[in-house]
Amino acid sequence: MAVSTNTDRGSWNSKLGFILAAAGSAVGLGNIWGFPTQVASNGGAAFLIIYLICSFLIGFPVMVAEITIGRNTGKNPVGAFKALHSNKFFPLVGLWGVICGVMILSFYTVIAGWAFGYAFEELFLALNMPAAADWLKDTGNGLKNAIVATVFMLGTIKIISGGVSDGIERATKTMMPLLIGILVIMIVYVLFQPGSAEGIREYLLPDFSMINADLIFSAMGQAFFSLSLGMGALITYGSYLNKKENIPQAAAFVTLADVGIAFLAGLLIIPAMYLAQSNGVNIFVDGQLADSTTLVFTVLPALFNSMGFIGTIFGVTFFLLLSIAALTSTISLLEVPVSYAIDEYDVTRKKAARNIGLGILVVSIIISFNPNLIDYFVIVFNNIGLPLGGFLICVFIGYAWKTENAINEMEYGFAGIRQTLFVKVWPIFIKFICPAAILYTLGQTLVGLF
Ligand code: PHE
């Protein structure tokens, strides 16, 4: 096993550290902004079902694969592929991941800035400062978008400069239970409002005729994005992981936490959309979503504002928690190119974090002034880029490095693995089911385009 001797690499402090950090990476805007928006634009419950299938049957096996590659090599995504096989093509898979991560981070920072801005918007509204509140809530204001995105990126750079363990572990430990608590309270509130039943029906009663190639493509992309897969974030986090950790168990926990929080977010936001619509907020125009990119930022403040004073407390807390959730994800997005630079080009952590972070910020500023670019970035780097990365990771393990070597690595920290069903089923998923499903999904979409 090749272990980097670079002292700028890190490791997780506690046994829980990795799980918290990986869950922190997974849980973010993907769950609370991405998932409900996709449900709303892609046929409600039908999308939910395909998303669950993609997460558990495709995402989970790929997550185990990524963490195993990372822990075995102790390297960044490019270095890891180099270390495991002499074929020159596979390091390019790692490089593609680094590129997707960089591009995703550039638009993610803008949306994270919106969430952060809304925490203060709610506060200014309560303090009777409507001008400041209006300024913060204008998602079309390029200058404002650029300012909050810059604040967010500087925070990310600061944490990554300090190293991987302390900040991420601590932030996630308190954020996650609080976020779940506030989601549950809000769901109970919404369910008691007259008019929410239509949203519940939309979210939980599937109309299978809605399932088509487009829906499956979006669900697959959403599952990869939400679980932080396909771009090496979990190869990188796995590279800091101790041999004592049980990889399949950790991956199962992260998948369940991520899918669970997305499900709760949908249960809150889909009914809240219908409430907002019946209160005169323009959610649908001619049966189509008015603006999908900013949907959540229209629906949630409307909900909080309908609750009176207590709504302000919920609103501020919710958007602050969402910002922290986004921060634990931007950290993992920036960590990928930074670990690559540290390992492969021998730069210091501080310098890598600053230069790469500021470089990405330039793209974020362009997006701040043109938020409609987000849709295109999502299609190319998220919906196509991440599943493609996942497909290549499966091919790599299944046919180059071999699943047997991966199982040997998993045996550390999971002594009885050879007696489990997992050991029989996982290789079949990695070699056949996952790559075939991803290829089919991407292929169908390509065919649909021409
Ligand atoms: N999973 C994160 C979210 O749901 C986004 C992310 C994607 C993070 C890819 C890292 C890598 O918000």
Task: Summarize the structure in words.
With 450 residues, the chain is mainly α. It has one domain (15-449): Hydantoin permease (Orthogonal Bundle), CATH 1.10.4160. The chain has 18 helices and two strands. It has helices spanning 15-26, 29-41, 45-73, 77-84, 90-126, 130-137, 142-162, 166-191, 197-204, 213-226, 233-238, 247-278, 295-305, 309-345, 349-369, 373-401, 403-411, 422-449, and strands at residues 284-285, 288-289. A two-stranded antiparallel sheet has the order 1-2. Strand 1 (284-285) and strand 2 (288-289) form a beta hairpin. Helix 3 crosses helix 4 (77-84), helix 10 (213-226) packs across helix 16 and helix 16 (373-401) packs across helix 18. The longest helix is centred in the first third of the chain and has 37 residues, at 90-126. The chain starts with 14 loop residues before the first helix and ends with a helix. The model is unreliable at 1-5 (pLDDT under 50). The site of phenylalanine has 15 residues, from helix 1, helix 2, helix 10 and helix 14.
